Amino acid sequence: MLQExxxxxxxxxxxxxxxxxxxxxxxxxxxxxxxxxxxxxxGGILRDVMLGITPPSSIENWLPIVIAAATSVVVxxxxxxxxxxxxxxxxxxxxxxxxxxxxxxxxxxxxxVSAFAATLVGLLTAxxGGILRDVLANEIPLLLQPADLYAxxxxxxxxxxxxxxxxTSVPIWIxxxxxxxxxxxxxxxxxxxxxxxxTAPAGVxxxxxxx
Length: 211
Known about the structure:
Elements: H1 2-24, H2 29-51, H3 57-60, H4 62-84, H5 86-110, H6 115-136, H7 151-167, H8 172-193, H9 202-210
Helix pairs in contact: 1-2, 1-4, 1-5, 1-6, 2-4, 2-6, 5-6, 5-7, 5-8, 6-7, 7-8
Subcellular location: Cell membrane
Keywords: Cell membrane, Membrane, Transmembrane, Transmembrane helix
GO cellular component, one term: plasma membrane
């Protein structure tokens, strides 16, 4: 039950991030709802396609689409308030990312794939919606930009579930909680302390541009 609630919160937060980008790009209502909905459920659809679940649960079940679309409509009308709640949105986004990464890995484990595959499925569940959002808005995907830690926490959280849930007799829900704490905690610490992965030295980048 708790996982379902957190999953719905994650869908809403991801949808809000997509809708806010649509507002910034001056999309109309349909465009904002489309980007928001795909951001909210895109990761789950990608997960199900990779695992051969057809039709994807986000399409088979009406609730995820409704949550994402309704959130996008709210953002359309009240986007200035969302801009002022940026810190709260980032916190919920961190929780949603952790839940999506670990739940994606857990579903992959249930389908008896390898731990490596389950980890990648969890990662793509967490970042898939954001990639769709950025591609639709003609942006360089945030995943590829030198931004705050995001993919790495998702990868580690998914790995906790894939390795623990698939290789031990400990109940899967314990690994779900542990993986979500790892992913969300690392993401929040990265936001607080400004942690980033290293980029290429300036001299190397300059020589490549001149080549």
